[in-house]
Amino acid sequence: MSNKKQALDARARGIYVVSPSSAVADAKVLVRGVKRLEKMGFKVALDRDTLAREQRFAGSDQSRLAGLHRAAKQSLPIVMASRGGYGITRLLPHIDWHLMAQANKRFVGQSDFTAFNLALLAKTGLVSYAGPTVCYDFGAPKPEILTTEIFGEVMRGELEILSFESDDSDAVDCRGVLWGGNLAMITALIGTPFMPKIKKGILFIEDVGEHPYRIERMLLQLAQSGILSKQKALLLGGFTDYRLAEHDRGYDLQSAIRFIKQSVGIPVITGLPFGHTPMKATLPVGAKVGVATEDGLAHIVFDEHRD
User: Fold this and answer.
1) Domain LD-carboxypeptidase N-terminal, which positions (predicted)?
2) Is 206 tagged catalytic?
3) Which of 44, 130, 181, 237 is the most exposed place for a label (fewest CB within 10 A)?
């Protein structure tokens, strides 16, 4: 094995688990997730407050903030959220962003963790990862094999291209900074110092439990605030667990997407395997990528193969 390969393997081997958002509902699920990660070859350590609880949160704001700071100071290279939920936006003004910048960690999470991903990018310019969490993904009764495999490949710097089915996408071939995550969290950061100012970027979005009219409304907020028009493409991930009403009268998610495509004026790509779904890619937030569509497929080409 080459020295470079050994260095990559060492960099990918350790995961420190924190709970910066909602409380872990079932410790058994967390334990199951840790065991699965260990079976994959990762050394896993839990922050001392991973299972803390105060109201709906994983401990007080002070303890969750301290957990993030401990994560930045400890020796393991990957920091992964135990779960999403809500709570990180409370912490953003108090996070030591200089410490985060100096930590040289690979921060990984989704949902509420979008707020951290984007704030880190806005405050430091550093890449982090929208990807699986310990409980939802690795702690699932039967984890999606592609989710776990892609996570490992990305952490080892092996993934060069991600291809997925995208039958009704606009034609596009462009390059830009990949950024985004949970749509509700993105719109919550508009007008704050934690919203990255990305021009000619590639924005990806997903959400859960949001009716299509709310998805449309949030996208219109991004459009009317001038953010969408500055992007080269919009990638649509999963929008799950919503319920249509009788008075929608045919208005559904596809209706909302059609309206946005007509209104925004940038290419829209569907089918991104990311969201509150068993299958999710691990995506580098803040990295430069290429995006192209052809013959019912879309491709994300990562900046370079790290070897």
Assistant:
1) 15-131
2) yes
3) 44
CB 274 within 8 Å of CB 283: yes
- The CATH number for 105's domain is 3.40.50.10740
| Nearest alpha-carbon partner for 88 in 181, 200, 203, 10 | 181
Q: Are residues 188 and 297 in the same domain?
A: yes
Residue 43 lies in a domain: yes
Beta bridge partners of 300: 162, 291
Catalytic residue among 22, 206, 210, 216: 206
- Interval 216-247: pLDDT, tens: 999 999 999 999 999 999 999 999 989 999 99
Per the CB < 8 A criterion, the answer to whether 163 and 299 are in contact is yes
**Structural domains of the chain, count:** 2
- Residue 207 sits in a domain whose CATH number is 3.50.30.60
Which regions in the chain score pLDDT beneath 50? 1-8, 305-307
Q: Establish if 211 belongs to a structural domain.
A: yes
Instruction: Mention every residue, 6+ apart, whose C-beta is less than 8 A from residue 3.
Output: none
Catalytic residue among 111, 128, 166, 169: 111
Please check whether residues 7 and 59 belong to one and the same domain: yes
pLDDT in tens, 151-161: 999 999 999 99
100, 123, 155 - which closes a domain:
155
Please list, in sequence order, all residues whose beta carbon lies within 8 angstroms of the beta carbon of residue 246, skipping any fewer than 6 positions away. Answer: none
Q: State pTM to two decimals.
A: 0.94
Q: Does residue 118 share a domain with residue 68?
A: yes
Q: Is 16 exposed, middle or buried (0-12, 13-18, 19+ CB in 10 A)?
A: buried
Q: Which domain holds residue 106?
A: 3-155
- Measure the CA–CA gap between 187 and 113, rounded to whole angstroms: 14
Can you list the positions of beta strands (E) in 150-247? 161-165, 173-182, 202-208, 233-240
